[in-house]
């Protein structure tokens, strides 16, 4: 009977609309609400405008700390398992801050496997990694400089890499999306350096009517065979215009750019993941060691640190709270995967595996009395077609983090609306600018947003929204509108 009355009302309402299309949209929205959709009408309409059905959307909004905060402000398919894309990093980073501690630091150590006399090592140099997620070029140079400061000047053996802290199995960088040279597809490694990537820098030289191309870091086994010609016109799709070709092998790589590069582009850079981890480290070490006056002519191989080896130097990572900022604000996949694997060592002895890492996170959630039966963890970064979590579970995680001793480090790691990170260019003209701390998620067919909204009257909210649909790339306007609606509701 209720449905019949509603149907008559909807028909009468739609009959007043001039456009049959608008009538259909109106009825679809009202019927969706009748079926239990609790999204605000303006947000629901925005999803429909982007051709995203509400059955592809899951959302949950709850006020923090209010007397009635047990009851959510908004729910829409809240228990549906969804692909969260990079918002899964919220799980990994919260677990990392609590299990390892905000001040936790990874260590990378150097050992001499052989005697040293008059600055000459008659044996191998061993580098032992423990999963540091961010060994930059500057930090690697610092490690090499410390080795040189011990008086070591010549290495007559090889470079041995002890990467046994992680057991990642066989990793295929092309498996996710067929783009093995994209830095976001670089796999985790106990001795990952500089994200295993090189930076090609393109700069017009007007005096010579050429384009200068340089490689950073300048690795001997990465060779450029052809450079683009300087051309007029707008910058546009300058990547495509380069007609780039990369011949990437484990031990060496060749690059050629035989297309055009517009003058209007000025200086631009392009990051590409080349070589395998061992040969990347070898090439970088050989170059850096030579720069500080050292002598080395060996090769590289994997191995374990001998018990008899002599410790020479240690490189400490940035503290975990700094790493978490990079992971969440910039959505760094490799750093998230390194942290995720590191969590395994809180419950199991090394080598760390993804299954042990997932088990460590589940134990941590159980200890916190957070029950997420739908949770599927694969690598902890969200760069997966299989990871799943429900919107209400993500919201409960955010609520728990707000009461945690690591609350400040966690919330400050999120991107600030209209200010930095992945939402630095969003909400520019909205009142919510600077008042929302958010993590975004982006995959083909997936868009997501999750975090905290601070209202103008001091009220605070957690907001989570997942979109899983072929048209998800069009979801930013309704997602941003939802965040703005939460801020306005705080009034």
Overall description:
With 491 residues, the chain is of the alpha/beta class. It folds into three domains: 1-35, no CATH class; 39-102 and 321-489, DD-peptidase/beta-lactamase superfamily (Beta-lactamase); 105-318, D-tyrosyl-trna(Tyr) Deacylase, Chain: A (3-Layer(bba) Sandwich). The protein is built from 13 helices and 23 strands. The chain has helices at 2-15, 20-34, 41-49, 89-99, 137-149, 238-241, 277-291, 320-329, 333-344, 354-367, 391-402, 407-411, 476-489, and strands spanning 57-63, 74-76, 107-113, 116-117, 120-121, 124-128, 154-155, 159-162, 197-205, 210-216, 222-226, 229-231, 244-248, 253-257, 260-262, 268-273, 295-296, 300-302, 310-316, 415-416, 436-443, 446-454, 460-468. α1 (2-15) packs antiparallel against α2 and α4 (89-99) runs antiparallel to α8 (320-329). The radius of gyration is 26 Å and the shape is globular.
Question: What's the gist of this structure?
Answer:
This protein is α/β, with parallel strands linked by helices and 491 residues long.
Q: Determine the number of helices (DSSP H or I, runs of at least 4 residues).
A: 13
Radius of gyration: 26 Å
Predict the CATH topology of the largest domain: Beta-lactamase
Name the CATH homologous superfamily of the largest domain: DD-peptidase/beta-lactamase superfamily
Beta strands, count:
23
Summarize the biggest pleated sheet: 6 strands, antiparallel
Shape annotation: globular
In percent, how much strand structure appears in the residues? Answer: 15-25%
Spatial strand sequence of the major β-sheet: 2-1-23-22-21-20
Helix content: 25-40%
CATH class of the largest domain: Alpha Beta
The number of domains: 3
Note poorly predicted spans.
1-37
The residue-averaged pLDDT reads 92
| End-to-end Cα distance | 38 Å
In the CATH hierarchy, what is the architecture of the largest domain at level 2?
3-Layer(aba) Sandwich
What structural category do the secondary elements indicate?
Answer: alpha/beta
């Amino acid at each position: 009977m209720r449905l019949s009355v509603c149907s008559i009302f909807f028909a009468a309402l739609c009959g007043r609309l001039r456009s049959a299309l608008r009538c259909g949209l109106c009825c679809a929205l009202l019927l969706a609400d009748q079926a239990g959709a609790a999204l605000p009408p303006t947000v629901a309409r925005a999803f429909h405008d982007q051709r995203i059905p509400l059955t592809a959307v899951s959302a949950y909004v709850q006020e923090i700390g209010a007397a009635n905060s047990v009851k959510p402000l908004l729910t829409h398919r809240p228990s549906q398992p969804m692909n969260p894309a990079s918002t899964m990093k919220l799980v990994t980073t919260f677990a990392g801050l609590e299990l390892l501690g905000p001040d936790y630091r990874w260590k990378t150590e150097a050992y001499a496997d052989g005697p040293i006399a008059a600055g000459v090592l008659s044996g191998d140099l061993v580098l032992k990694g423990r999963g540091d997620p961010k060994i930059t070029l500057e930090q690697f140079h610092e490690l090499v400089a410390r080795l040189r400061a011990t008086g070591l000047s010549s290495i007559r053996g090889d470079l041995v890499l002890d990467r046994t802290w992680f057991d990642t199995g066989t990793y295929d960088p092309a498996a996710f999306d067929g783009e093995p040279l994209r830095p976001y597809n670089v796999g985790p490694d106990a001795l990952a350096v500089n994200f295993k990537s090189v930076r090609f820098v393109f700069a017009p030289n007007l005096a010579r009517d050429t384009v200068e191309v340089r490689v950073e870091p300048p690795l001997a086994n990465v060779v450029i065979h052809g450079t683009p010609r300087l051309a007029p016109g707008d910058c546009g799709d300058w990547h495509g215009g380069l007609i780039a070709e990369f011949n990437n092998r484990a031990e060496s790589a060749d690059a050629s750019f035989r297309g055009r590069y517009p003058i209007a582009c000025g200086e631009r850079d392009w990051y590409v993941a080349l070589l395998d981890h061992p040969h990347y480290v070898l090439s970088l070490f050989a170059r850096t060691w030579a720069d500080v006056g050292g002598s080395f002519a060996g090769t590289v191989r994997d191995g374990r640190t001998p018990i008899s080896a002599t410790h020479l130097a240690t490189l400490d990572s940035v503290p975990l709270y700094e790493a978490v900022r990079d992971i969440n604000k910039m959505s760094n996949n490799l750093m998230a995967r390194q942290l995720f694997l590191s969590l395994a060592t809180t419950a199991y002895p090394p080598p760390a595996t993804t299954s042990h890492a997932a088990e460590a996170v589940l134990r941590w959630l159980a200890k916190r009395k957070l029950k997420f039966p739908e949770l599927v963890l694969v690598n902890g970064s969200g760069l997966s077609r299989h990871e799943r979590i429900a919107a209400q579970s993500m919201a409960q995680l955010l609520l728990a983090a707000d009461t945690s001793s690591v609350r400040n480090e966690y919330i400050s790691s999120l991107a600030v609306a209209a200010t930095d990170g992945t939402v630095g260019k969003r909400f520019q003209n909205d009142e919510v600018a600077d008042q929302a701390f958010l993590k975004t998620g982006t995959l083909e067919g997936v868009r997501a947003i999750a975090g905290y909204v601070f209202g103008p009257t001091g009220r605070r909210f957690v907001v989570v929204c997942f979109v899983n649909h072929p048209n998800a790339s069009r979801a930013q306007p309704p997602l941003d509108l939802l965040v703005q609606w939460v801020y306005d509701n705080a009034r």
